[in-house]
Design brief:
single chain; mainly alpha; 14 helices; elongated; Facilitated trehalose transporter Tret1-2 homolog
Length: about 280
């Protein structure tokens, strides 16, 4: 989620540096007109829309851990932009980042809910959004002082670091129990709880996974059951309002939307940072 937010703000930082109305001071090698900037902005959200359904399928096949590792692989694709430095590679990079964001955010919420203690589960799931806004804020703060290429290299290195470190983290005990790998599930639960006294919780996980497997479930069930329909309606409405509110466009176009003021310490870049600070504070 940190990387997702970082790549959202990357477009904001790069806007003035790649516009065809601005000089190529950083020797990027190409310029973007207003239509290409619009595509650069919306392709991230387009990728984000297309991947969650696929993420649900992948999670069932390979598990939560490896789904997150797959999303990290998509975060590495922007390396193409660093190599070729043209409009097409930029489009591919933006779409792949959005695709990775959809997989990561879908999988991460489920993974956290399955490994976290019930007393802190809600807080940890909510922190995913906070870290995304923290990623936005970090890039807005750092991107103003370093070249765009350096910033892009840093963001491309982070997924590799994540894959190395996360490879040592166990799979969700709930998923392992669901695929009948009970010994691995118990070992995983002991690792997450840092205790060998997990018999009671482990039995609860096994019973829950067995009940879920017997009940099954399909996409149709989301609309057949009145409670599910209500939940789906709430999710669709809130998510639609969030995206249609224009948060991505607001962040990306902030350097051009906000005029430079007469205050030297409050230019358009600082206005973007203030907005992101308020958003992050609200998420906390």
């Amino acid at each position: 989620s940190l990387l997702a937010g970082a790549w959202i703000s990357w477009a904001s930082v790069s806007l003035k540096k790649m516009m065809d109305t601005e000089p190529d001071l950083e020797h990027i090698g190409f310029r973007l007109n207003k239509y290409q900037i619009s595509w650069m902005t919306c392709l991230l959200d387009l990728g984000n829309v297309t991947s969650p359904v696929l993420a649900c399928i992948v999670m069932k096949k390979i598990g939560r851990k490896y789904s997150l590792l797959v999303s990290a692989c998509f975060y590495c694709i922007p390396i193409l932009f660093l190599v070729y430095q043209d409009v097409l590679s930029l489009y591919i990079a933006r779409f792949s980042v959005g695709f990775a964001k959809g997989i990561a955010m879908t999988t991460l919420s489920l993974y956290i809910s399955e490994i976290a203690d019930s007393r802190i589960r809600g807080t940890l799931v909510g922190l995913a959004a906070t870290y995304m806004y923290m990623g936005c804020l970090s890039v807005l703060l750092v991107g103003a002082f370093i070249p765009l290429k350096t910033l892009s290299i840093i963001l491309c290195i982070l997924p590799f670091i994540f894959m190395i470190l996360f490879s040592f983290v166990p799979e969700s005990p709930y998923y392992l129990a669901a695929v009948e790998k009970f010994e691995d599930a118990k070992t995983s639960l002991k690792w997450f709880r840092a205790s060998d006294n997990v018999d009671e919780e482990f039995e609860s996980i096994v019973r829950k996974s067995e009940a879920d497997m017997k009940e099954g479930g399909s996409f149709i069930e989301l609309f057949r059951n009145p409670c599910n329909r209500k939940a789906v309606f709430i999710v669709i409405v809130t998510s639609s309002l969030h995206r249609l509110g224009g948060i991505t466009s607001l962040v990306v176009y902030a350097p051009k939307t906000f005029p430079d003021t007469n205050f030297p310490m409050l230019d358009s870049a600082h206005c973007s940072t203030i907005i992101m600070l308020s958003v992050m504070a609200g998420s906390i």
